[in-house]
Each structure stands twice: as structure tokens, then as C-alpha cells.
Write a structure and sequence with these properties.
Helix content: 25-40%
Radius of gyration: 31 Å
Length: 370
Amino acid sequence: MKRAIGFISIFLCVLIGYYIQPILFPPATPTVKKIPEQPLRHHALKYEQIPATGFAPFIGQSVAQFEQTFGLAEKSEPSGFFFETRFYSLATGRLAVNSEEGVVVGINVVAKSEPKVAPFTFGMTNEQLFANMNLSANFGVTYDEEPVAIVLSEDDMRARPLIAFNNQSFAILFFDAQTKKLAAITYLDLEMLLRLMPYQINSGNPLSYRMQDTSQDWQQIDQTTQVHLTELIDAYRQTKRLPKNQQTAGAETASHQLLQNFLQQPAAVLSKSRLEEWQMDQTAHLVNDDFYLTPAEFKKLAQTEKIKYQAGFFYSPVIDPFFSFYYWCSEPAQVALFNGRAENLAVAVDQQNVLVLKQEFEETKGSDRP
């Protein structure tokens, strides 16, 4: 009996000690060495680069160096977006150079035959371009120490492929949506590419295109842009051997009326979701989405103002008129407006907003359709 009582006493002591000991003497907490967090890095995507030829070597050079080859500019105009555009004579086309603080940042060229755009040739097809070089659809670049991933869609690859040169410059080749042939080339540096950005960006941000130079006379800039776009349309039609459109006071008044009424009362034309899209596009500076009025929205705008029209569109933003015009020419819906028989055509401009209106030519006694 005593042995049994002793065994039970010892057992209870061991049991109590087993459960009480961790409470009275808890185990030491192991020291965990903290590893400093490493910033997430996106690796730049590899893309094809070709030797800098044509106008590409002039990107990044001074205007003075450019003019040693091409002579002095015929005229120079402020863009309102902190770069100026200089126009040079070209025997078979047009040459416009964008510069910032005396440095060439963009070159727009269109011509019937211009050897300085090799290895490209005006009039070549997209198929001929693909046959001669490997084109990239993904571009991983770095701007201001931040990675930017640029992605071209199938439409982009077909209508406006992006070419990279080995001097950190780029070229956008604009193929006419009607003829399927190379119509214009824009050479530009990375900063100007991010500012104009016609492609999708999967990571990183484009540059704000709404950074306007408030010290400039915007009424004069709008007038200059209007004239420049009208001249581009006429020159485009001339290459197609089409007669010039007519510019009439009535069409000009109607185009300005439509543009101002839309800008002042977009809710009268747009649905709630589209209005939110437009408002976001106007307030969020770090976006690269362009904005068109749909055909139904444009029709509603014209009906509201009781203005008859044959065709037309609204587009924003227009930062470089040359670039925007040939971007439109690479789009099937817009290029159709610049072709066909001559009509009354007017362009209205309000800073980066542009409206193009085409009205039927009204024949009067003694007048003939051009």
C-alpha cells in the first residue's frame, strides 16, 4: 500500500512538473534576422535594334548641326508644348523638325522619294518591310531610372510599326490605311516617344502631354495648327492626284461651333460612362489614351447644333499636327475622310482638341465642283 501511494505521489509530481515548467520557464524566442526588402525590378525586354541611318543620326544633335546639312529653316513655330517646330524645304515632300532648347528631338518626313530614309522606302508595303527586317512588338525601355514596357498590337504592327536604332532613337513608320504603303516617317527620341505615345504601355507611364506653355499666344498657336493641318490634308490629296477641298466661311464657322459646344457641354453628347472617360482623360495627366467621338456621338453633336455634314471626327490630343495627321491616315475610319471627291472641309482647333468637318459641296450658279 505504501509503495502504491509513493508511486502515485512521484507520478503526480512528474506530471505537474511537465506542464508547469514551460509556464515558469518559457523557452527563449529565437532571434530572426531581418533581411532588408529589395526593390522590385522589371527587366527590360530585348528588342531588335538596327544601325542609325536616314534621319536617325540627327536625333539628339543640335539644330545648328542639322542645318549644316539641310540649310536654314524656312520658318519656325512654337508648339505650345515646350518644343518648337522648324520647317525645311524638301524637293519631293515635307520636312518638319521638332527641337527643344536647340536640340533635335523629332523629325517628320514625307516624300515621294527621299534616299535619306534608307533602309526604308516611301511607297513600300508592310510585307516588304517584314521581309527585310525583324520587327519587335515589345519594347522594354528605361526613362528617368524607371522601366517602361511598350506593347504594339497587331494593328500597330501593320499600320505604324516602331523601329529602334542603336543610337537610342526610334522611328514610327506610318502606312496609309487605304493604299497599304509607307506614307510618312517620324524619327524621335525616347522622351518624345513617351510624350506622343500611340501604343499601349503595360508598365510605367507616358509623359504628360498637357504640360502647356502658358506664356505662348494660344489663339495664334491654334490658328497655326489649323492652317498646318489643312495644308497637310491638301498635300495628301495632291499625292493621290485628288482635287483640293474647298475652305468656306460657312464650314469654318460650323466646325468651330461644334468644337466649342462639345468642349463646353460634353454631357449633352456623351453617355455617363463616356463622360467619365472624357473627364478622366482631361484631368489625369499621366495617361496616353486618345479620345475620339464615335460616329453616333458626332451625329448627336451635329443634330444638337442643327448642322448638316457629310463626314467628320473629333480627336484629342493633338500635340504634333504632322504626327497626328499621319496617325489618322493609318486608321481606316479617319483616312476615308481625306479621300474621295472634293467637298467643303474645315478644321477647328482648341489647344490639343481638334475637330474636322466635311460638308457637301454646294454648287451655286456659276460655280463648278473642283
